[in-house]
Structure formats: structure tokens, C-alpha cells
């Protein structure tokens, strides 16, 4: 009779013991070595088991871990919102795919070393690495559905555990570990791995292509313009952009290269105009609706973006607006409902000055209007996001009254969701919308009107978003990642 899974011998890979480091580069190199050893061990064991059957043992590897202990209340520059811990104690985080997050980890560890003057310890955590996430590193290796193998995978390998894959840290609900250790980063390794897998599924591009500046849109027209812009940048040797990645991981460096449209498009087609160190721009067509907006931002959040901007279309609510006018959101009326359990509606979602200024300046530069004249084409005010696309077909007194009381000037289905999730995940956010219809004033979005409108406005609108992102790219991180997005007790890592 075969032993039960609980009674089987557990085999683990041989790795170096925990070691202290006072240099970020060597610390990250050790993280990469520990992670790669674990992933290769699980991959090799998995491939062998798929060929020869149950190995008669359990195979287990662990995520690497960063650990910091400080015994002092160090005096930190009060302008900084990250890169330091707030009180003495031991802090730790598990790490996955350190080769993917190398620049981020180098930056965050270097700040800890500089601000606290103590070494970081790199070693193994006590969190097992699920085999599904380990083999995701290797092309053409896939874990089959349960029942496809001659044995139950969970009898040999660790599998994803949703009870430990959650947003407790970012939602402010995390508790110290039994030994008193506090979280060092906003996401655990399993939570990151879960989202990396979802990103590949929803966007049909690999996570390594994602750039630090992310534009969200709700129309395909912006994708066409983004590709045209990308090709123009690749043709300019001084642009700093190096390649363009389309759906299916098709990557070009030649501006005239052909990009074939896949037979099956993903739910959220995503495109990347790349620069070194992820300093380029990613465009995500999230489609229509708050559910898509939440899904996309839930997973992109683990990439630790430096800015999210929504550049989509909206219904103008004021008689003084015209089709094609811009709306710069400085407040949000949240009636999307998808984040109510994670972020109560009574939580204010503030406008971020750095983002607002970048967007307003970009509009001024593209339209050649300034000061009071800018009000001819752009209004600043509250944007309402609803979960009902056909809200105008309902009895009017309730919805219209609430919109008027909120002083809303525009309505869509995604902007408040993206802003609220940016707030929740500590990712700077902003919204610039373009008025495509005015349902309260008889201007509905009809086919003929739409084609004329899109043709004349989409290109300029996208250029404004790109120009704003390029301004934000030049801004020091400590300025754009401001204290407005940080709560009382925060993780040291962004």
C-alpha cells in the first residue's frame, strides 16, 4: 500500500543558507540564484513525473525571501513616502521572478540599505512554490488539468493556495506573522505569481514586456493610433524607444515590419512601446465596463507601475460641452460597485497634483491653447462611473439628480474603478476623457456621428496621454509616488 502524501519523504533542492548583504546588486543576484534553483528543480521533477509516474516522494521548493531587522527609529527624510520602515522590528517579503523585477528590487533594496544602514538577509522563506507557477518560467511546459496525470499532482507537488493569495497587505488587513515579522512589500510571491499568470491570459503578452507607464482605453481606435505612433518613434533614432510589442508577443524594431493580427484576440489586447528599464508606455484596451477595469488593474498592480492614465470616451453631462471636448477628472463618483468590498465608497479618491499638471500641460501643448482659453476645450470636474451602460433608459429623476448633486460633468464605466484601484494599490493615477456623446441633451452616440468624431479626435487624445506620460517619466520617483497614496503603516517597498 502506497504511503499517503503526508507520510512521504520530502525532497528539496540544495541551496546556500541565509546570508547578509550590504549591496543591492549582490543581494538580487542571490535572489535570482535561489529562485532559479527552485524553479528548475520543480520543472525537472515535474517532467520526470509526467513520464515515469509518481516518484514515491514529495518534491518541494521554497520562494526566496528578503528580510530586514532594525532596532532604531531612524531619522528619515520626511518627504519620502517609501524606501524605509517606520519603526524598529523585523520585516520580510517573499520574492518571485526576481529576474523580471530586477530593477525594482535593486532600487528598493538600495533605499533600505541607505536609509537604515543595516544589511538585508537573503535566504529561503517557509512558503512553498507551487509547481504551476514554477513551470510558467519555461516555454512549452504546462501543468495539465487535475486528473490528466496518473497521480494527483497535489500528492507530489505544492499547488496554488488561494487562502494565502490575497490583498490583505494593500487592504490594510494583514497581521504580523507568529514571530512578529511585518510585511516588507505590498504583495507576497504567490499573489504576484497569480497575477503574472492572469496577465498572460488576459493580455496575450508576457509580463516582461510591461512598461512602467500604463495607458488604459476603452476603444480599439486608440490601439490603431498607438501602433502608428510607435512606428513613428521606431523610425526616429533619437526617440529612445527600442521596440514595439503587439498581441501574441510579436515584437518589432523595424518601423515598417508587418504585424499580423492573431486569429483569436484576448479579452484585453495589450501593446508595449518599450524603452530600457521599462521606461516606455503600455496601452491596454480594457473594453467597456468596471469589471474589466478592476480585473486589469488587479493584476497589473503587481508590476508596480509608476503611473496609470485612463484615456477613453465619456458622456458629457453639461450643456456647455461639445463633442470632442476633454474632461480632466479631479474627483470621482463611484457607482461602479466592483470595489465596494475592498475600498468602501466613503474613502475619498484624491486628485494627484503631479498627474493633473502633466495632463493639463499636455492638453495645452497639443491644442495650442493656454490659461482661460483652455476652458474652450477642457473642463475639470467630477467624473461619474456607473455599472449600467444604458443608465439613460431608466427613470430619469434618480440618476440625474445624483449626477447633478455630485456636480458631475462626465460619465463613463471605467475611470473611477481605475482611479480607486490605483489609490488602493498605491499607483499614481489620472483620467483624461473625451466627450463622445451628450445623452441628456439629445446627442446620442450614433454610427455616422461616431465615425466623424473618432477620426478627428482619437489621434490628438492619444498624443496628449503619451505626452503626459513622457513628462511623468522624467519626474523623480519620490515626487510622483507621494505620501497622498500611503497610509499610517506602510510597507517599505513601493
Protein described:
- Helix content is 32%, strand content 19%.
- The strands form 3 sheets. It has a 5-stranded mixed beta sheet.
- It has helices at 24-52, 102-116, 131-135, 189-203, 220-234, 290-300, 353-367, 397-405, 415-425, 447-473, 477-480; strands spanning 10-11, 19-21, 58-59, 62-70, 89-94, 120-128, 182-183, 213-217, 243-246, 250-252, 270-274, 281-285, 307-310, 313-316, 326-335, 378-386, 408-412, 429-437.
- It has 494 residues and is α/β, with parallel strands linked by helices.
- It has 2 domains: 5-197, 2-Layer Sandwich (amp nucleosidase, domain 1), CATH 3.30.1730.10; 204-484, 3-Layer(aba) Sandwich (Rossmann fold), CATH 3.40.50.
- Helix 8 links the parallel strand 16 and strand 17.
- It contains 11 helices and 18 strands.
Features:
five-stranded mixed β-sheet, Rossmann fold, five-stranded mixed β-barrel, 494 residues, 2 domains, amp nucleosidase, domain 1, alpha/beta
Here the CATH topology of the largest domain equals Rossmann fold
- The helicity comes to 25-40%
What is the first-to-last residue Cα distance?
Answer: 51 Å
Q: Please report the first level of CATH classification, the CATH class of the largest domain.
A: Alpha Beta
Q: What is the beta-strand fraction?
A: 15-25%
- CATH architecture type of the largest domain: 3-Layer(aba) Sandwich
CATH superfamily of the largest domain: Nucleoside phosphorylase domain
Give the strand order of the largest sheet, numbering strands 1, 2, ... along the chain.
2-6-4-5-7
What count of domains describes the coordinates?
2
Biggest beta sheet attributes: 5 strands, mixed
Taken from the alpha-carbon principal axes, the silhouette is: globular
The count of helical stretches stands at 11
Radius of gyration: 24 Å
Structural class: alpha/beta
Keywords: Hydrolase
EC number: 3.2.2.4
Family: Belongs to the AMP nucleosidase family.
Domain AMP nucleoside phosphorylase N-terminal: 27-179
Amino acid at each position: 500500500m502506497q504511503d499517503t502524501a503526508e507520510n512521504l519523504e520530502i525532497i528539496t533542492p540544495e541551496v546556500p543558507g541565509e546570508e547578509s548583504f550590504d549591496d543591492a546588486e549582490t543581494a538580487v543576484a542571490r535572489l535570482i540564484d535561489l529562485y532559479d534553483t527552485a524553479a528548475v528543480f520543480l520543472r525537472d521533477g515535474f517532467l520526470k513525473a509526467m513520464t515515469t509516474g509518481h516518484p514515491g516522494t514529495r518534491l518541494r521548493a521554497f520562494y526566496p525571501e528578503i528580510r530586514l531587522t532594525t532596532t532604531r527609529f531612524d531619522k528619515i527624510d520626511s518627504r519620502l513616502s517609501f524606501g524605509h520602515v517606520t519603526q524598529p522590528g523585523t520585516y520580510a517579503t517573499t520574492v518571485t521572478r526576481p529576474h523580471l523585477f530586477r530593477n525594482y528590487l535593486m532600487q528598493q533594496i538600495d533605499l533600505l540599505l541607505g536609509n537604515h544602514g543595516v544589511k538585508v538577509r537573503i535566504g529561503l522563506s517557509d512558503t512553498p512554490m507551487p509547481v504551476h507557477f514554477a513551470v510558467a518560467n519555461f516555454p512549452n511546459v504546462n501543468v495539465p488539468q487535475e486528473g490528466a496525470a496518473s497521480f494527483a499532482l497535489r500528492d507530489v507537488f505544492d499547488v496554488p493556495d488561494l487562502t494565502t493569495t490575497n490583498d490583505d497587505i494593500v487592504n490594510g488587513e494583514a497581521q504580523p506573522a507568529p514571530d512578529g515579522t511585518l510585511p516588507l512589500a505590498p504583495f507576497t510571491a504567490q499573489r504576484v505569481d497569480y497575477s503574472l499568470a492572469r496577465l498572460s491570459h488576459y493580455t496575450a503578452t508576457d509580463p516582461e514586456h510591461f512598461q512602467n507607464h500604463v495607458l488604459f482605453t476603452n476603444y480599439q481606435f486608440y490601439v490603431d493610433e498607438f501602433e502608428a505612433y510607435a512606428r513613428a518613434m521606431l523610425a526616429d533614432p533619437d526617440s529612445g524607444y527600442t521596440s514595439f510589442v503587439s498581441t501574441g508577443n510579436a515584437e518589432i524594431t523595424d518601423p515598417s515590419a508587418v504585424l499580423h493580427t492573431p486569429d483569436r484576440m484576448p479579452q484585453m489586447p495589450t501593446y508595449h512601446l518599450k524603452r530600457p528599464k521599462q521606461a516606455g508606455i503600455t496601452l491596454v484596451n480594457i473594453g467597456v465596463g468596471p469589471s474589466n477595469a478592476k480585473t486589469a488593474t488587479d493584476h497589473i498592480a503587481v508590476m508596480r507601475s509608476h503611473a496609470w492614465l485612463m484615456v477613453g470616451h465619456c458622456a458629457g453631462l453639461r450643456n456647455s460641452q461639445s463633442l470632442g471636448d476633454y474632461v480632466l477628472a479631479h474627483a470621482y463618483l463611484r457607482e461602479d460597485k466592483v470595489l465596494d468590498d475592498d475600498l468602501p465608497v466613503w474613502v475619498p479618491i484624491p486628485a494627484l497634483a503631479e498627474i493633473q499638471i502633466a495632463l493639463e500641460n499636455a492638453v495645452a501643448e497639443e491644442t495650442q491653447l493656454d490659461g482661460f482659453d483652455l476652458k474652450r476645450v477642457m473642463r475639470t470636474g467630477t467624473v461619474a462611473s456607473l455599472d449600467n451602460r444604458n443608465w439613460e433608459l431608466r427613470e430619469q429623476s434618480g440618476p440625474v439628480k445624483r449626477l447633478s448633486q455630485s456636480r458631475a460633468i462626465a460619465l463613463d464605466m471605467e475611470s473611477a474603478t481605475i482611479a480607486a484601484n490605483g489609490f488602493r494599490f498605491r499607483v499614481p493615477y489620472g483620467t483624461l476623457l473625451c466627450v463622445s456623446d451628450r445623452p441628456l441633451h439629445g446627442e446620442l452616440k450614433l454610427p455616422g456621428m461616431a465615425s466623424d468624431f473618432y477620426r478627428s479626435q482619437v489621434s490628438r487624445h492619444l498624443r496628449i496621454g503619451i505626452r503626459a506620460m513622457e513628462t511623468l517619466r522624467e519626474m523623480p520617483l519620490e515626487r510622483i509616488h507621494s505620501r497622498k497614496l500611503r497610509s499610517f503603516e506602510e510597507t517599505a517597498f513601493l
